[in-house]
TrEMBL record:
Basic and acidic residues bias (residue ranges): 1-16
Keywords noted in UniProt: Coiled coil
Span of the signal peptide: none
Segments of this protein annotated with the region Disordered: 1-20
Organism: human gut metagenome
Gene3D superfamilies according to UniProt: 1.10.287.1490
TM region(s), chain numbering: none
Protein name: Chromosome segregation protein SMC
Coiled-coil ranges (or none): 27-61, 118-152
Amino acid sequence: HNNETIERINRDKAAENETEQNIDAAVSAALECIQKAEEQIADATRQMDELSKQEETYRLSSSEFSDRAAALSGEISALSVRLADCRVTAETANSSIEEIRSRISAIDESMGTRKDDYDALLKRKADAEAELEEIQDEIVSVKNAIDGYTLRFENRGKKADSVKLAIDEKQRELHKGQDRVR
């Protein structure tokens, strides 16, 4: 029964190790996504700054650039939307990382508890094996004692039989003697 429990704990540990590896891969993927999002944010911010400077230059230059300013304004709006999307993606990735970290913490705690259970079972197994060895030694001792008593009983039985035969012989002799005397 102890071996079955130990095997079950080993299987559970292997499953938890596999889950932890999957979580580590998810964390790595989320970190890469955050890094890309941060790069996109920096790129979009830089482009927005450049476009803002260009827009200001065009406004000051003349009315011939008013169409260009409108186009740049549209690009700035599009980049603002893209920047907002990147921020949402980054926040989602951050919350995913926090959730994954809490799961890893729970798994680590569970593995620690199971290791304690496993160690306790190993100790119980060792104690049971020691007790079994003591009992087996006691059985051998009792068996040896029984064999000794059996041998003594057999020897006494043989002596009793020979004494009985001797008594029977003496009684016959006595009866023969009594019969002669009569």
